[in-house]
Write a sequence for this structure.
């Protein structure tokens, strides 16, 4: 929600390929994400989901093709991303309070010298209210439940007023009720900003998501309604039991 | 203990030792908390051991070539900073071989030191004080130097508190926010290296890791936030250094080792009680 919003696509991958030590991880991937899209990137572990995420964040460079974030190279524009990492990547015993963690999202461009400003603190508290954790602001990190942990990281991603919210496995280690709550929150946030989430959990592909990008070295995107059993087995390489409520002819799309 | 307090008035070396212990406790508590929170005590260990190389080389230059300004402390500072930068760059660039490089810096630093000390003419009483420390030998000049280094570490460590905290907690996120993560991480390691040099004079190369980490590790059981851990570990560090010094005085025990045993016993007691209570922490 910065002053002047970029009018082109938020994320644009053109014929992107990536190889890790000579082993291809992604091949000829093209993807366009527009303003206020809600895209879910799914696929098996090792299929290249994390690679796509790191390419968008500019943490790695593609071996071929181009990646554009708000029309610019990712390193130039990634401060507009609110990023929520996988929570397993953090040390649960680290001595920080909930507010400390959220305030980290205020670091970077135009930050105040040596200590956080009053505005920083107010924004951090507002972000905590949005994820309904205002009452836990002084709670140490190691006393949080899995769901609270995730919401603190979401608040930290929101506190910098991002244009794009990028979430890595936001529902790992949380139960179904919390997952639904998180989904509703993301849906509300999606009214103003673009959301991309990466998950290996197909159950997360709920009716809030507009589009699903299936990644297994190659990438195919589908409107959510077109997900079928054949597609899932094509992605995961093995048949998956799935009940099809709307088994009509013509909607089944298979890969390749 | 009463003898120690009585002799404080009459012997300046005791007052210097006491003051040195209190002074280093500030740097020790603050940087030690970063080390414990970020779980990099093995990096501090490698830096500490590499210091012997710098001290040995400087002493060799001083004795053999008569370069009078080449004080072993200067060698220690150069070696510590160099090791910190080497380990830091390797850990930032090539994560998977970090432990090997840490081990190499650790051992090569010691080997270089031993060779220089072996080749330095005359009797080497210095080797023992490098390895095991000698807080009772602290001079007035040493104290000024300690105070200066300490101030530098304190001011830098506190001015960049937010950045260091964030880099230690979640490097990747801070990088995405546009902060120079590599520069902050290297600066943090350099400050840790300078702290290690300060602590070498108190407890010696071998026991530095213990003095750097035990006060912070003990404090972690009572803290919710990093700055609380820092404040408490400064207090624990003052307690351990002065207490250890006082305890060692009457029986004539080595001060460094007594300080470490004192710190270790308190830490193990706190950790043991926490473990017995099902891993709880003692915070309100």
């Amino acid at each position: 929600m910065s002053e002047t919003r970029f009018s082109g696509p938020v994320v644009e991958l053109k014929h992107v390929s990536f190889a890790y030590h000579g082993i291809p991880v992604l091949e000829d991937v093209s993807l366009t994400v527009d303003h206020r899209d809600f895209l879910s990137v799914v696929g098996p572990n090792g299929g290249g989901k994390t690679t796509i995420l790191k390419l968008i964040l500019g943490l790695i460079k593609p071996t071929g093709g181009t990646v554009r974030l708000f029309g610019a190279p990712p390193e130039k524009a990634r401060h507009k991303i609110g990023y929520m990492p996988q929570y397993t990547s953090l040390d649960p015993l680290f001595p920080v309070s909930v507010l400390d963690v959220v305030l980290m999202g205020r670091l970077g461009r135009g930050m105040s010298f040596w200590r956080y400003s009053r505005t920083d603190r107010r924004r951090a508290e507002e972000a905590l209210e949005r994820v309904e954790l205002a009452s836990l602001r002084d709670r140490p990190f190691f006393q949080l439940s899995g769901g609270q942990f995730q919401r603190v990281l979401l608040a930290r991603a929101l506190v910098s007023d991002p244009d794009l919210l990028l979430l890595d496995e936001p529902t790992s280690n949380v139960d179904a009720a919390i997952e639904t709550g998180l989904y509703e929150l993301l849906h509300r946030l999606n009214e103003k900003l673009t959301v991309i989430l990466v998950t290996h959990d197909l159950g997360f592909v709920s009716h809030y998501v507009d589009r699903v990008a299936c990644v297994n070295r190659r990438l195919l995107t589908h409107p959510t309604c077109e997900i079928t059993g054949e597609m899932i087995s094509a992605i995961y390489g093995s048949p998956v039991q799935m009940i099809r409520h709307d088994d009509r002819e013509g909607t089944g799309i298979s890969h390749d | 203990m009463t003898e120690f307090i009585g002799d404080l008035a009459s012997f300046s070396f005791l007052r210097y030792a006491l003051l040195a212990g209190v002074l280093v406790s500030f740097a020790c508590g603050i940087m030690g908390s970063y080390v414990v929170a970020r779980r990099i005590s093995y990096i501090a260990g490698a830096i500490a051991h590499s210091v012997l190389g710098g001290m040995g080389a400087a002493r060799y230059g001083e004795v053999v070539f008569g370069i009078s300004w080449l004080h072993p402390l200067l060698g220690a500072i150069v070696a510590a900073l160099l090791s910190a930068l080497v380990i830091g760059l390797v850990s930032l660039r090539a994560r998977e071989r970090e432990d090997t490089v840490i081990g190499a810096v650790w051992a090569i630093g010691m080997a270089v030191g031993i060779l220089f000390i072996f080749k330095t003419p005359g009797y080497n009483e210095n080797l023992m004080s490098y390895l095991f420390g000698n807080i009772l030998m602290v001079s007035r000049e040493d104290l000024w130097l300690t105070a200066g280094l300490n101030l530098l570490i304190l001011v830098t460590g506190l001015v960049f508190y937010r950045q260091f905290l964030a880099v230690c907690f979640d490097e990747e996120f801070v990088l995405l926010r546009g902060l120079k993560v590599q520069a902050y991480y290297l600066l943090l390691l350099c400050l840790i290296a300078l702290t290690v040099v300060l602590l070498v004079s108190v407890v010696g190369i071998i026991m530095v890791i213990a003095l750097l980490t035990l006060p912070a590790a003990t404090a972690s059981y009572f803290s919710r936030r990093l700055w609380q851990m820092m404040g408490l570990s400064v207090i624990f560090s003052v307690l351990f250094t002065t207490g250890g010094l006082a305890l060692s005085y009457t029986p004539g025990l080595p001060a460094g080792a007594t300080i470490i045993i004192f710190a270790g016993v308190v830490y193990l007691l706190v950790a043991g009680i926490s473990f017995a209570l099902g891993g709880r922490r003692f915070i309100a």
User: Anything to note?
Assistant: The helical segments of chain A are 49-57, 74-77, 98-103, 118-130, 146-158, 176-189, 229-236. Residues 239-256 of chain A have pLDDT under 50 and may be disordered.
